[in-house]
Design a protein that fits this description.
Blueprint: H1 4-14, E1 18-22, H2 26-39, E2 43-47, H3 49-55, H4 57-71, E3 75-82, H5 85-93, E4 98-101, H6 108-129, E5 134-139, E6 148-149, H7 163-173, E7 177-180, E8 188-189, H8 198-207, E9 211-214, H9 222-231, E10 233-238, H10 240-256, H11 262-284
Parallel strand pairs: 1-2, 1-10, 2-3, 3-4, 4-5, 5-7, 6-8, 7-9, 9-10
Helix pairs in contact: 2-11, 5-6, 7-8, 8-9, 10-11
The structure holds 1,3-dihydroxyacetonephosphate.
């Protein structure tokens, strides 16, 4: 079966993006997997440090691998927003397909040094075990919370990533994936999400020799997403909208059914996430 690197290459050539959706539980995982499978698209499951500690790091990896093996399906797992080398090493050792080292709040040189260390470790694993683990890094602060916000957090998105600096960073670190700040913000901003600077995405795609990732996909309008993908984005991350869909579905399930059986009331949460992810994948894969 093709690995994540192959699927990213295919997505880029087709000018579409692979959806990356975060999970905190198995119900959400099934919803995402079912939606991706219904549309025949590869999908990436993201687990941040908090999410994977809640599920269990090894258990999160095993769950995704079990779906991939049982259904012979391109579903991958990413150690999203990992802040230290030890976390990256652990995820790589446990079989994650990709790791995101988040040094976005460090100084440029510190971010470069930390990222290089992670890339070197992934390369070493490739040499010793033949396993490909992709490394992603971020440059530019875009906030940290996948939640519903009244306003944009202080400083988030203020300094968008300059294309020449992006090119330099990617060359210096050798990352496979790069997450820039291009107007995207983590979370849904109820007072209005900023727009994507599509021209900047295009310029970064020309200078940075790797796949581009759009974080903070929640709350961004469909046209902005389409423009970003056409300009060179290969992966779009969505978390807050998944969380909102899960909660709304769960509340509905609890209200409409007095059952105490979790598999009954949780089913509404699963359906609610499925519907959201189905629409997002249609958008990212350019289904008309
Ligand atoms: P949102 O919560 O804005 O969708 O961002 C998610 C994300 O980028 C996870 O890495």
């Amino acid at each position: 079966m093709c690995n994540l690197k192959d699927h990213l290459k295919k997505a880029r050539e087709a000018k579409i993006a692979i959806g990356h959706f975060n999970i905190s539980n198995v119900e959400t995982l099934w919803a995402i997997f079912d939606a991706a499978r219904a549309l025949g698209q590869p999908v990436i499951i993201g687990v941040s440090e908090g999410e994977r500690n809640f599920i269990g790091v090894r258990q999160a990896a095993s769950l995704v691998q079990s779906l991939r093996n049982e259904f012979d399906y391109p579903i991958f797992i990413n150690a999203d927003h990992t802040h230290d080398f030890e976390g990256v090493k652990k995820a790589i050792d446990l079989g994650f397909d990709s790791v995101m080292i988040d040094g976005s709040q460090l100084l440029f040189d510190e971010n470069v040094a930390l990222t290089k260390k992670c890339v070197a470790y992934a390369k070493d694993v490739k040499k010793k075990e033949g396993r490909t683990v992709l490394v992603e890094a971020e440059l530019g602060y875009i906030g940290t919370s996948s939640t519903v916000l009244d306003t944009i957090p202080d400083g988030a998105g203020a300094d968008m990533t300059p294309p020449d600096v992006a090119g330099r960073f990617v060359e210096m670190t050798g990352v496979d994936l790069f997450a820039p700040s291009v107007g995207n913000i983590h979370g849904i901003v109820t007072s209005g999400n900023p727009h994507i600077d599509v021209k900047r995405v295009k310029d970064i795609a020309e200078t940075a020799d790797c796949h581009l990732v759009l974080h903070g996909g929640s709350g961004i309008g469909d046209e902005d997403i389409r423009g970003g993908i056409r300009a060179g984005i290969s992966v779009v991350h969505v978390n807050t909208e998944v969380r909102v869909a899960f909660r709304e579905g769960l509340e509905k399930g609890l209200k409409e059914d007095a059952t105490v059986a979790p598999y009954k009331y949780m089913d509404k949460a699963r359906k609610s996430v499925y519907d959201l992810v189905y629409k997002k994948i249609q958008l990212f894969a350019n289904f008309s």
